[in-house]
Amino acid sequence: MATNVLKWNPGDPVPYNGGKDLTRYDFPDGFLFGGATASYQVEGAYDKDRRGVSNWDDWSLMHPGKVAEGGNGTLAIDHYNRVKEDIRLLKQTGLDTYRFSISWCRILPGGKFSTGVNPDGIKFYSDLIDLLIKEKIEPIVTIFHFEVPKCLGDEYGGFLNRRIVDDYAKYAEVCFQAFGDRVKIWTTINEPSTFTTLGYVNASFPPGHGTPPDELPHKVVLHRCHPDTDKTCHSTGNEATEPYIVAHHLILAHATAVRIYREKYQAVQGGKIGIVVVPNSWYFPYSDKKEDKEACERAIEFLLGWFVQPLVSGEYPESMQKRVKERLPKFSDKEKEMVTGSYDYIGLNYYTTMWARYRKKQPDDPINYHTDQEVEFLVISFSSYLNVYIYIQVGSEWLYFVPIGIYDLLTYAKRKYNDPVIYITENGCSEKNVKNLPIHLLLADDFRIKYHQEHLAYLKLAIDTARVNVKGYVVWSILDNYEWAAGYTVRFGMYFVDYLNGLNRYPKKSAIWYMNFLNKKKLMGPKDREVEDITEEAAGKKKRKY
């Protein structure tokens, strides 16, 4: 059971003085600290240099109401044209590593290797990698981060069709060939459960299959479409089977890419390859009742185990096999052999935690991924069982400040999955995008500093006391960006991007904190810092149009 949670009360101290005194030098030698982005969220230049059309281009531009305030990634934060400027910010901050993703549509505009490789796309990412290496910043490269070439969806349904596995594998091999001499940490797929559930259960991501949560007879998740603007919220596709089919093909695509890398490139190029899992929420049992503890374990297996257990054992979790039955695809013996052990590391994205308690399936429930679990998720509540409050909401409606959850996630992964090498590949929090304040007020994100300090404290505790094999910590995000269905209504960045005035970048207080965390052996008071804070005089008096 997932009950390895430290007992604490709201007044109890967070380990290591709440993380306030920690610096990078308190972590093991070679531990990587970095920042992350993803191609569609930052690049823009959607029609430049022969880039093909992606599922997100179509979703945000051709389906009004699917994204908050009609946001799209056609310009995003124009990273495509500001690469040098942005890498200077990474260097200035002191990052060891930069995690970014490659756009499938830039490399293969027609989706398939047979339609031709785009030299402009190769050059863009090759130049980016060279610039990073020149500045001694290690690239962590994600091959797939939610972007599917639209043409593959039109032709055969994208990840609903087994044909996607071969097309993805050939795309991945192009990346290995073009960049593998310099890229030493590869991620095959980012957050497959997010891609699957939001696209094929909740109708929040393309292709919009399933039932939006607000139309369900009960609240099962916090991700939502936007019913005030989305007039097309309705159930499409087969939510009883499609998410499991898509997930199966994602796992096979991952494993096929790993097999190709290991057989043809790894020995020569000397890199490692893994997958990034666990989006957004972790779970605690709501009470000490057996049914709630079992519900929590099921929720974790349907989230984390769905994609990690096959990589460890070649099988889906028993709870999924028992409940989903014939709707859950099976691996052939040959596929089991390929899938088992197909990782050098596991990337974990952690943001928040919710309560999980048993909820018996009701007659009017749809048959889908959520109701298969028989779990209800709760927030803004107190559990006497663990003496933990989950009540501080941070920007996004699904994101609550629960730093102890990262400790439970890490120790669970160590215990359950044979002590894998782990990277925290995303951790961060958001604020609402407020459009009518002076810049100096928008840069004052003290809550984000506290968020990272306390998560790093529990991360260090997992390393020191549980000996979890964590090798790195990457913040989401280093820059404000396009946040998928939320568009530009929330900001996750340590650097403020001024959407109203030329996309200028300004360091928030959290960026200043991160600079000092990464560059000081001991954190000192503001007056003694070599890196000065952005002050009202320096930033707040800049003229800004509204």
From TrEMBL:
SUPFAM superfamilies: (Trans)glycosidases (SSF51445)
Key words, A-Z: Alkaloid metabolism, Glycosidase, Hydrolase
Domain of life: Eukaryota
Statement: the UniProt record of this protein carries the keyword Secreted: no
PROSITE patterns: GLYCOSYL_HYDROL_F1_2
GO MF annotation: an example: beta-glucosidase activity
GO biological process, one term: alkaloid biosynthetic process
InterPro entries: GH, GH_1_N_CS, Glyco_hydro_1
Protein's UniProt keywords contain Hydrolase: yes
Record-annotated membrane-spanning stretches: none
Entry similarity comment: Belongs to the glycosyl hydrolase 1 family.
Protein name: Beta-glucosidase 16
